[in-house]
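> call design_seq(struct)
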C-alpha cells in the first residue's frame, strides 16, 4: 500500500475506504452516511481527494491483496495492522473507531468484515467503547445539590 503521513487525512480516508468495502460492497446508505454525518469534513478531506484515495486503495489492493476463489480481493491482518499504525494520535484513533463503527451500522447490517475491522482497530489502539468518555455519551459529574447520598436531617427548631 502506498505510504501516507501518520495522522494525515489521507491515512484516515484510506481506513474509511477499507471500512466501506469491508462488506464487499458499498451501499447507498453508506455513501449517504458519509455525507449526512460529514465524515469527510471530520477527517479533514474534500470529496475529490477522498474519491482519488478510494481508487488508490483499490489499485493497491490489486497489487498487494490476496485474491479469493470468488474473485474478491482481501487484505491480510498484517497489512491492516500497518494501516492502523498510521493513526497514532489517541484522539484520532477514537474518532476512527467511531467512524468505522458508524459506517458498519449505516446500512443496518454489521457484516463479518466490518466487525473484524472494528475489532482489529479497537485492539490495536486499545480503545474500549464501553469505557466512560469513549462511548460518545458525555460524562458529567452529578451536582451535589441535586443528589443526596446520605439521609437529610431536619434542622432543630424553626427555620429563621
Amino acid at each position: 500500500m502506498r505510504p501516507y503521513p501518520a495522522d494525515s487525512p489521507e491515512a484516515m480516508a484510506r481506513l474509511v475506504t477499507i471500512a466501506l468495502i469491508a462488506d464487499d460492497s458499498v451501499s447507498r446508505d453508506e455513501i449517504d452516511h458519509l455525507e449526512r454525518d460529514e465524515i469527510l469534513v471530520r477527517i479533514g478531506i474534500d470529496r475529490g481527494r477522498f474519491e482519488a484515495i478510494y481508487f488508490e486503495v483499490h489499485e493497491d489492493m490489486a497489487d498487494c491483496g490476496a485474491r479469493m476463489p470468488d474473485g474478491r480481493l482481501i487484505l491480510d491482518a498484517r497489512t491492516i495492522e500497518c494501516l492502523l499504525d498510521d493513526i497514532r494520535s489517541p484522539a484520532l484513533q477514537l474518532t476512527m473507531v467511531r467512524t468505522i463503527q458508524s459506517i458498519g451500522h449505516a446500512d443496518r447490517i454489521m457484516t463479518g468484515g466490518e466487525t473484524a475491522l472494528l475489532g482489529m482497530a479497537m485492539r490495536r489502539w486499545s480503545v474500549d467503547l464501553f469505557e466512560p468518555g469513549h462511548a460518545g455519551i458525555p460524562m458529567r459529574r452529578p451536582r451535589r445539590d441535586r443528589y443526596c447520598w446520605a439521609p437529610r436531617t431536619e434542622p432543630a427548631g424553626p427555620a429563621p
